[in-house]
Design goal:
Low-confidence stretches: none
Helix content: 10-25%
Number of helices: 3
Number of strands: 9
Oligomer: single chain
């Protein structure tokens, strides 16, 4: 079977977009995602799929907590920041307002719709994304939610090609030559 039919069906679904954030020590990470869903009612569970090319994937391997921020139609600029720039070279959080959750996870101040969770399971296979299942420990909602969809972001260029598999640490985490 060719991927044309599958790709067309997935594009027609037009998923709502979100940003996942996490932290390991002082290193913050976050990326734009379109693959996410509730995957259990009792106990409550949610899952996100993170590109293995992303800095966020490497950080989430070592972090017990993460947050998923649900984007609204007014958040195109945040989607661009977390989707087009690579955390390997840029501290994206320095370019937006954040608050640190008691779990240590950075929260995006502009996003009132979020779930903070404790990582329960990480599933990796031969695909280009890893599935992270987490237990919600804090949820925030607001009013008048109008989701930002994949079809709203056709102008974005990903910060990493799909098959990129950079090794840690990040470029921006490298000590300066003078510090060595």
């Amino acid at each position: 079977m060719g991927s044309d039919g599958f790709d067309a069906l997935m594009a027609a679904l037009d998923p709502p977009m979100a940003i996942v954030t996490t932290a390991v020590g002082d290193e913050r990470a976050g990326c734009l995602i379109g693959f996410h869903a509730q995957n259990s009612i009792d106990p409550s569970r949610y899952c996100v799929w993170i590109s293995k090319a992303n800095h966020t994937h490497r950080a989430i391997l070592h972090s017990p907590h993460l947050a998923i921020h649900f984007l609204t139609s007014a958040d195109h600029d945040l989607a661009s920041l977390f989707g087009e720039l690579s955390g390997d070279q840029v501290d994206k959080f320095a370019l937006c307002d954040t608050t640190v959750h008691e779990s240590g996870v950075p929260l995006l101040d502009r996003c009132p719709f979020f779930i903070v969770g404790r990582r329960v399971t990480l599933l990796e296979d031969e695909s280009d994304h890893a599935c992270v299942i987490f237990e919600p420990i804090d949820v925030s909602t607001g009013e008048n939610f109008a989701a930002l969809h994949l079809s709203d972001l056709t102008d974005l260029v990903p910060g990493h090609p799909v098959h990129d598999r950079a090794a840690p640490p990040t470029v921006r985490a490298q000590p300066e030559e003078a510090d060595r």
